[in-house]
Amino acid sequence: MHNRFDQFRRSALGQQLEQLIDTPQRYLEYAALSRAGMPAVTAIVHDLQHKFAEVASDQTARQFCGAMVGDVMRHHGHQLLRPRGRVPGGYFSYGAVWSPLPLPHSFAELLASLAAMPQQVLQRLATLPPAHQRTRPPGIGFSALEHLCHLRDLDDDAFRPRVRAILEQPQPLLHGVNGSEWAITRDYQAQDYAQAASGMIRARGELVALLQGCDADAQARIGVWEGRQRLTLAELVTDMVAHDDTHLQEIDELLLALDGHHA
After folding, report:
1. Rounded to whole angstroms, what are the CA distances from 30 to 1, 62, 63, 182, 212?
2. What integer pLDDT is reported at residue 262 of this predicted model?
3. pTM for this predicted structure
4. Contacts of 116 (CB under 8 A, 6+ apart)
5. DSSP three-state, residue 81
6. Which of 145, 129, 121, 146 is nearest to 201 (CA)?
7. How far apart are the first and last CA of the chain?
8. 129 Cβ partners below 8 Å, 6+ apart?
9. Fewer Cβ within 10 Å of end Cβ, the chain: N or C?
10. Which residues pair with 97 in a beta bridge?
11. For the segment 61-114, what is each residue's pLDDT rounded down to a tens digit?
């Protein structure tokens, strides 16, 4: 999940919603709804209505619910089909519709997805007027400029160092980063938009070039995430693609939020 929710996730409400959303039984409901072509988040509406009345007026909490369900579906290998399906029962006007079944990808397909990300981001943002490049959506979310800076810095200062560590060390410790804190301490909103875009393209190219030389043995090398989870390089790359997908979805949501506010 995008770390813009880190603070909310630690709150009492965030922990209670995570307990509601991320369970094996709940995933079965998400998968069944996906096979019926319905948004997976529909599965939690009944419980929200009866146990979490305050979420109806808390946009950040609703965004967290959608992001958490998305994390569960990506973790199980489902792919986003439509970002905005109608959700019955209130609380959510729209929710993401996921593939009926998990869709595993080869390492080559994962690299192709990583390589395609910069252009996908820039194509989405191409129609955004300069006056709104620093505009944030309601609730918790990045501006377009913050997305570009975050993706650039994550490749430079997190993704690429993690890959090198796995390739060069036996079971290295891998650590997460606080992207929301980076946005503040690195003053993303004050940076140049064009330079951030070119930096994102450059950083992603360097990451993909590093991964392209990884054979099956390299893909099977192991890192230890935060000291508690062992994962292969291939699994780490899968997580990178999922992170990209999260940003693409958030950029779509940003553009929808800004639609009508620029002309």
Report:
1. 17, 17, 17, 33, 34
2. 44
3. 0.75
4. none
5. strand
6. 121
7. 32
8. 262
9. C
10. 82
11. 999 999 999 989 988 889 888 888 999 888 898 899 999 998 888 999 999 999
